[in-house]
Protein 1
Amino acid sequence: MTSLADDYLDLDSLFSPEELALRDRVRAFVKARIKPHIEEWYEAAHFPLEIVKELGELGVLGMHLEGYGCPGRSAVEYGLAALELEAGDSGLRTFVSVQGSLAMSAIRHFGSEEHKQKWLPGMAAGELIGCFGLTEPTAGSDPASMLTTARRDGEEWVLDGHKRWIGLASVADVAVIWAKTEDGVIRGFVVPTSTPGFTATPIQHKLSMRASIQCDVDLVDVRLPAGAVLPDVTGLKGPFSCLNEARYGIMWGAMGAARDSYEAARDYALERTQFGQPLASFQLTQQKLVDMVLELQKGVLVALQTGRLKDAGRLRPEQISFGKLNNVREAIAICREARTVIGGNGVTLDHSPLRHASNLESVRTYEGTDEVHTLIMGRAVTGIQAFT
Ligand code: TGC
């Protein structure tokens, strides 16, 4: 029987044996390959390229996609994997999201047969890395205002512009770049990063997501063959459909960071004594731990219901906003509160909660800020758009 301290409402009973087996495999990987090194990677601002192939072997790259070497797992299984990976660190879960939910999803759903054959098997195996270029220095929440252009020059496409906050771009083999064509329509382009004119520069001095890479990307006269364009989508619904996948994974992942922080605080409170007794014996500490359990369990239920809707083909983008907004917001609160239980020691890398909280500042901002998701939900509830 699961302990109330670990799984208060016995949420494990809501998952199938196959789902739990997958979850346990990813949890064991995180314990063996991420947790022993994460403080060092985080302090050194090091993304562990060395484990990318292992993530491929684990079957978590493009794991919800079918065919072309992709694992073809369910949405709930993908969510459970995201949760376990983010219990290690948001930077590692972000890599899996960028690779699978963004770059691979774009190619799988909107690419030509040639794109799929060329890129997807290697990306699923972790032999090739992809990135996804939507955000720009002056176009974050409002990607419709992007300035990157794509013009025809004979048979070729020529891309010019700048992208910012692009995960993994400096180590990627291929980039999916969104750009505005001369008739004002946004299209996606599959760009090998070795193409002349493509430059990716890692952003320095980050206080968040330090075990991950985010880049500025410059596109200067990047010449591509006619077949580089994603043939099966035009307009913003292309990148937004990929963002749906990433936002979905985030709602699960955030609960992983929260769980790890709760466990760190609970264990510390049981061991650490002050005033002659364990911290866990004080009423104020118990209240903190109980509040964490409440929101953690509720957040997993939100993610699970969203996942079941997704697997049933009934999930609406507005429902993804519910989970992304709620779960990241509550996860940050849990991580911050967990840090207070650990006191002064909690501001060092010896304990995970402040690292997780700091990472989640990025998570609450990318793939739609709290404000964007609030207004998506506000529009759904009232029928009135309040973005501008
Ligand atoms: P609107 O102009 O009305 O819609 C444009 C078209 O898109 C369709 N659409 C969606 N389709 C699928 N899924 C969704 N979630 C969709 N949302 C909109 C829409 O139906 C329309 O289609 P069509 O056929 O009529 O043209 O746009 P909107 O008013 O619905 O959206 C406004 C707003 C603010 C919600 C939207 O712009 C938004 O979501 N903004 C946030 C953008 C965002 O999340 N950016 C973060 C990107 S992260 C990144 O670039 C870095 S990658 C991560 C990394 O590398 O680490």
Protein 2
Amino acid sequence: MMKTDAIVIDKVKESKISTIDFDNLTFGKTFTDHMLECTWRDGDWQTVEIKPYGPIQVEPSCKVFHYGQAIFEGMKAFKDATGDVFLFRPEDNWRRFNESAKRLAMPEIPKEVFINGLKKLVSLDKEWVRFGEGLSLYLRPFMIASESGVAAAPATEYKFMVIMSPAFAYYKGDVRVVIASEYSRAANGGVGYAKAAGNYAASFYPNNLALQEGYQQIIWTDAASHEYLEEAGTMNIFIRVGNKLLTAPNNDRILNGVTRRSVIQMAKDHGIIVEERRVSVNELREAAHDGTLKEIFGSGTAAVIVPIKGFKHKELKHELPESNDSYALKLMGALKDIQYNRAEDKYGWRVKV
Ligand code: COI
């Protein structure tokens, strides 16, 4: 019998919020007073608990350490001028979390545990959602295989947890990218579309090489030929050629981004032609060469919308032109207006906490 109807809450004795310098936050370093934890055992989810943020105890043989059964989501809560707090498209994240869980042979989480748990947790730490341009509370739901024992098989015990971190946008400063021509992030039939922790681990080494050359991210290409643009790990990617926006269609190697979907919808409603189709590296290079390449930008929960200043592909280094009618900035404005409750939400994306 699932014990998810009631949430057991153990509040901190004293909040640490007065010790936080909200003007100097480093992404993902500061966590709120509380976290949520729910264990899956004996084939079912147990009591949902909200407790003080702190270490958890698991054995060294815990399966997540050995076989990487770990998935996560990235979400945000926003505060409006009147102090109301909103989640952005939380059901989309819940759905994707379960798609990831299924692919990693992990148990799916009921909607009420995910959504009600998040709402309760956010409302308890509401003071941590600051009001101001670019400010939000980054929510990190995740699940790990917590069963002890090193047999290579799916675990029989899992922990679903949510931690929360006050944040500005993910990238500070200019972002330039390398277009992958050697390493790959994801394979056909693999887990690239899931928010599996291992996808990120696999990208760290090539990303370090890019960083050494002064590039902040990699735009991954298809593993088979390295000829088609896919995604950037922390972001989906949009290319503006002339007045058209191009983005790779979802497949089993590309994360099905919530911000990506929002951008596509808003762009169409702004009268921008959006083509979801394969975009080859050659097409990008030719557009850069003949001057029709106007913008490249990334979209993601943490990153929001990030204009890309330049790219490198093999021997080619290209700087994007300055734009006075940037689609990235226009769409970022429209997205933030919805997130911060400054504009009508005709899509029903805001969910009040
Ligand atoms: C997010 O945008 O929430 C992500 O998952 C990117 C993260 C790795 C920082």
